[in-house]
Design brief:
Alpha-Beta Plaits, 7 strands, two-stranded antiparallel sheet, 2 helices, alpha+beta, globular, five-stranded mixed β-sheet
Length: about 110
């Protein structure tokens, strides 16, 4: 999906909701990355989850308005206060609407 996709409904202009599955690598575990990601997602009113992986990365799934999802990914990749993200893999798809909020998974 490209940037700025909109769905035209009679009398309304709505942003398209998307899902992004993201893997962050670098210094991302043991530095409050998950807690800060949850705060970021909550501030953008996104749903989904975040968890540590066994290979030292952090995996996150964000759902919400496309621009807000992109902003959250960028914040997580470049503005985490104690982390140093060396790379990220992002896969976009259609939102499924299966989450009620944003959770830290263990």
């Amino acid at each position: 999906m490209g940037r700025g996709n909109f769905l035209l409904l009679p009398g309304r202009l709505e942003c398209v909701k998307v899902r992004a599955r993201v893997f962050f690598e670098g210094l991302v575990q043991g530095v409050f990355f998950r807690a800060n990601t949850k705060e970021c997602a909550d501030s953008f009113k996104l749903t989904g989850w975040v968890r540590n992986t066994h290979d030292g990365r952090v995996e996150a799934v964000f759902e919400g308005e496309e621009e807000k999802v992109r902003q959250a990914i960028e914040w997580c990749a470049s503005k985490q206060p104690h982390a140093k993200v060396d790379g990220k893999e992002v896969e976009f798809s259609e939102a499924k609407g299966e989450f009620e909020g944003f959770a830290i998974r263990y």
